[in-house]
Amino acid sequence: MREPHPFSTDFTWGVATSAFQIEGAWAEDGKGPSIWDAFCHQGGKIIDGSTGDVACDHYHRYREDVDLISSLNVDAYRFSMAWSRVQPEGRGAWNEAGFDFYDRLLDALQEKGLGAHLTLYHWDLPQALQDHGGWLNRDTAYRFADYAAEVARRFGDRIDAIATHNEPWCSANLGYGNAQFAPGIADKKSAIQVSHHLLLSHGLAMQAMRATGTTAKLGIVLNQWTADPATTSEADRAMAELEYARSVQWFMDPIFKGRYPELALRAHGEHGPEVLAGDFGIIGQPLDFLGVNYYFRAYCSAETPPRTPQGGQGYTDMGWEIYPQGLTELLLALKREYALPPIYITENGMANADSLIDGRVPDSARIAYISQHLAALAAAMEQGVDVRGYFLWSLLDNFEWNSGYAKRFGIVHVDYATQQRTLKDSAIWYRDFIAGQRQVPA
What we know:
By secondary structure, the chain is α/β, with parallel strands linked by helices. The protein has one domain: Alpha-Beta Barrel (TIM Barrel), CATH 3.20.20. The protein is 41% helix and 14% strand. It has 15 helices and twelve strands. It has helices at residues 19-22, 35-41, 58-71, 83-86, 96-111, 127-130, 139-155, 168-177, 188-211, 234-257, 262-268, 279-283, 325-337, 364-382, 425-437; strands at 12-16, 76-80, 115-121, 161-166, 217-223, 227-229, 289-293, 298-300, 343-347, 387-393, 412-415, 420-423. The chain has an eight-stranded parallel beta barrel with strand order 1-2-3-4-5-7-9-10, surrounded by five helices. A two-stranded parallel sheet has the order 6-8. The longest helix has 24 residues, at 188-211. The radius of gyration is 21 Å and the shape is globular. GO terms for molecular function: beta-glucosidase activity. Keywords: Carbohydrate metabolism, Cellulose degradation, Glycosidase, Hydrolase, Polysaccharide degradation.
């Protein structure tokens, strides 16, 4: 007898990527430079000294990659558009050659019966806008809305879902807070103001896209985590509450409650954002869906050195704790605190030190990771959380931001010298798991 199926037959299974991490073709067919092109080319910014100039060469190999996606039994593909590929300056003229690429990609997906879930912004701002202040300049939010409207006007009847932003927490805190990511600025006040402009741009884009009459579901993708105190001490509990407030609640409260969390505002003090009248009304546009990216929890210890996390399942190659039960805990917490739209798990996966051995990539650790997180997801759904789909990160090994090509998140191995793709054991497991979910229980 088969085990009960926790996922409905209309649950969406997918894989995910982002433009800069896989496309390559960084200066072809009229594409303008992005902040990540500039960041990589500065030298000394990427751990392995690499760039995203070629990456997985998806720009030229997209048909091969769509065939791979189709072979995995998934329903949908989540990908992002490179803003500077379709609008090199981030304002003004559109680049038809860039739009043609995404038109061909959508055709290829449609031919295979695959749904398209598009992200408008996955961290690769046109460098021309950065030259005018980037996300620190409030005007960039309005330029983003123009871009969103044009994409929705052209493709809005061919795309299942459009997310405005992927993980604005990273864009603000890693791009402007500690300089780990492009554009490489380290200034706390700037990071907090950027987070507000990113949220403002989200709301403006939602309004602009809805005005086009698009049939796509519209939403945003946020990276989120629980924050657990290491002990019952007052200091550890206070650390955990603040961590949750300035990460999860900082982006959720403006969208769903029309304000920033007071605890985080007090902690930010003089670094708090400038908010103009009407901003929260713009930010709080109704969502058709909320995308949740989950990888780890925050484990908060005020001790020096901090206490080692307890209850996890080890660590990924990124050094992130494997804590699948945190996904259940997070989703239940969100359900208690907010009036949520349907949720998609838009990213979940692990970096693993994979090797190609005799034509095969044995990655049992990744299989265990995915299986445990799907069990945690099912547990949340059984307790009433409305989750409509799961997108595994990532389809391909790719350019992992400031780690370059040193970290492999893909369920498909990429030999960067030859661009040969090889299904890892985890890809075969995921394919077969999805097939099993579609069978009618005996």
